[in-house]
Design goal:
132 residues; 23% helix; single chain; alpha+beta; five-stranded mixed β-sheet
């Protein structure tokens, strides 16, 4: 009886964790780029194209997010702002935003199984600091 409850608890916990939306970010500061003090994430602008205003490119930010379930757009944007703020950026401009295969799983018997792709969202943005 006790082992059965433990099994059900473990299954519920795994099910809960599997149903959570995930967001991961990787920041790559450019070599030779200037270093700035961190900026407030709330002040970082998100742009869809490179601005015409003079700026310095600081680095790239890769954000990967699940799609089933998917996090809200606000959470993805906040993650992007937080990572850009660590570089001292004033803004980021998005250069890539697509759904793409990020993995796969195989199910069925050895002789007749099938491959199911795992789709994720990939977003790449360039962090910039405006020149005065």
């Amino acid at each position: 009886m006790k082992s059965q409850r433990l099994c059900w608890s473990l299954c519920a916990c795994i099910g809960f964790l599997a149903s959570c939306a995930t967001i991961n970010a990787t920041t790559n500061q450019y070599l030779g780029a200037p270093h700035f003090a961190p900026s407030s994430p709330s002040s970082v602008e998100i742009l869809r194209k490179e601005p015409t205003r003079l700026h310095e490119r600081l680095g790239e930010i890769l954000v990967e997010a699940s799609t089933d379930p998917s996090p809200s757009v606000e959470k993805v944007e906040q993650k992007l702002r937080t990572e850009a703020g660590k570089l001292g950026a004033d803004a980021v401009f998005v250069v890539y935003d697509h759904l793409q295969p990020v993995g796969a799983y195989v199910s069925g018997p050895w002789w007749g199984g099938w491959v199911q792709p795992i789709i994720g969202r990939a977003l790449v943005a360039v962090a910039i600091k405006y020149q005065s």
